[in-house]
Amino acid sequence: MDHKEIGSRLRRLRGNQDAKSVAKALGISTSALFMYERGERSPRDQVKMKIARYYGLPVQEIFFSE
Predict the structure, then answer these.
(1) How far apart are alpha carbons 62 and 66 in whole angstroms?
(2) DSSP per-residue letters across 6-20
């Protein structure tokens, strides 16, 4: 799966939640979250696990399944 598709999934998951609050809960900067959501960067494995835990989904479903 490409970065743009992952970014699109992350934007959908966040929905109307405040980006600053989500980033704080994940222990990352807001700018990093936005870069992930725009598909400019891919999160490291540790951050992928935090994102999956935050949204209550398996890492595979967010970052790897088509």
Answers:
(1) 9
(2) HHHHHHHHHTTS-HH
In tens, the pLDDT along 21-48 reads: 999 999 999 999 999 999 999 999 999 9
Residue 27, token pair as written in the block: 């222990």
Cα separation, 42 vs 47, whole angstroms: 9
Question: CB neighbours (10 Å) of residue 65?
Answer: 10
Which stretches within the chain are classed as H helix?
A: 3-14, 19-26, 30-38, 45-55, 59-63
Length of the chain: 66
SS3 content of the chain, % helix, strand, coil (to 5): 70, 0, 30
Full-model pTM: 0.92
Cβ atoms of 58 and 65 within 8 Å: the answer is no
